[in-house]
Amino acid sequence: MADTRPAALAPEAAASGGRPSTADPHFPAVHLRPPAHWVNDPNGLVFHDGHYHVYFQHNPHSARHADMHWGHFRSSDLIHWELMPVALAPTPGGDDQGGVWSGNAVSHDGRLTAFYSARHPGRWHQPVTSAVSYDGGTTFTKRGWLLVPEPPAGTTMFRDPYVWRDGDRWRMLVGAALADGRGAALEYASDDLDDWHYQGVFLARPPHLLPGGRNTEEGWECAQYAAFPDGTGAVLASAWDPEDGASCVVYWPGREQDGEFRATAPRLLDHGPDFYAPALLRAPDGRWLMWAWIWEARDEERVGAPSTWTDEAGWAGMLSLPRELAPGTGGELIHRPARELLALRGERRIAAAGEARAGQGEDLGEVARATDLTVTLERGGHFRLLTSPDGTEHLDVLHDPASGELVVDRDRASLDPRAKGGRWHLPPEGRTATLRILLDHSVAEVFTASGRTLTVRFYPVGEGPWRVQMGTMSVASAAYAVEAWDLTAPV
User: Fold this and answer.
1) Which of 8, 125, 186, 257 could form a disulfide with 158 if both were Cys (CB 3.0 to 4.6 A apart)?
2) Helices (H), strands (E): how many in the chain?
3) What's the DSSP call for residue 474?
4) How many Å apart are CA 13 and CA 82, to the nearest integer?
5) Beta bridge partners of residue 185, listed in sequence order
6) pLDDT bracket for residue 21 (50, 70, 90)
7) Measuring CA to CA, which residue among 26, 30, 2 is closest to residue 461?
């Protein structure tokens, strides 16, 4: 999570033993994360007692993926966030002694109930258990027993409960892998949040190839379900490979029928390389809000592996900015930055429109390292964020003149050789594409006008101000329009 919490957070950071990371040029300004140490999945997203609560996987003792607790932020408006004390910790010798892993939370009868995966070194699966808060989500009392102690037969992975209210009953999905090679979301039901009964497979599919070479994998983590007013819905899952681990996020549009989810073909939820484990929250106004884990792209061998660079930095991971999720006309899920984020816009640095010409990069001016950009590009247009004075370090967004795809290229976005590179693609938007790009020191969240997204980490080390330049690729000219505002943490 990020530094959306100026001076007020310093005492809490000291109390948790964390050293502030705000001097690190890669540390975010408006994405949620505590001042130090490890962060991964958002958990327990809930509106309760007048506040939005965002819990998250957190190691309060180091920047490594271990010793999972639930960290906690809360906000009354999605803009001003308060870092709260750690909400849940493993119990030595208990069912969760290996970590309080991912889950969610519900608000009911004046109390907040958190459901989570109880990790134990003596078990291959992660049973579901819960804890209850009567003080607005600050402290929790654990149930003391496992709600779902054993997975169904034929299951080879089992974790990450997602609970929601459906009429007069409660329902739960748990992410799983089945022995026949399918990833699955398994369903349970309860009348009272305590006694849960297995209902069967809600959705299961074998690995399915996706654009760009990724696939839905053999195991599903963090299964989530969004139901829409028109009777349709979507199952979200984080694709997990038994050998390589965390991969990407996919969703299946469809609708419920006869106790199962009748799904159409799967789709990528986010087209970038650094987005995983999204979690949903139904806001009081009916919107579906979503946060996700944005991991690092440093020198780790794979996601969650040790990283010398991360150890040096003392922190890893952040949460995405909140997104609104809604169904499109063709079953696709439409992403928008939460409308409240407009309040983070500060000084407008750039307001320009024109026509870029081949061989003539047009410099539009300086931007802050946390910036809210809108960029319109004709096919063949080229947006470049220059992060070093000599221009050798830069992040590029290209509107391919032949395919119409939008390409985000980070191969030269860091002069540090430990940073990961790569080119990532968004499907065509038409002759002209309009993007909103939320930059925050070492992350870019890219939203297209049609509601697609691409999230990417990059690590500029060049000194001096960042600059925006427009150009072309393989065309004589391309029209553009750019506006840029500072992204400012509220006080």
Assistant:
1) 125
2) 2, 35
3) S
4) 12
5) 175, 203
6) low
7) 26
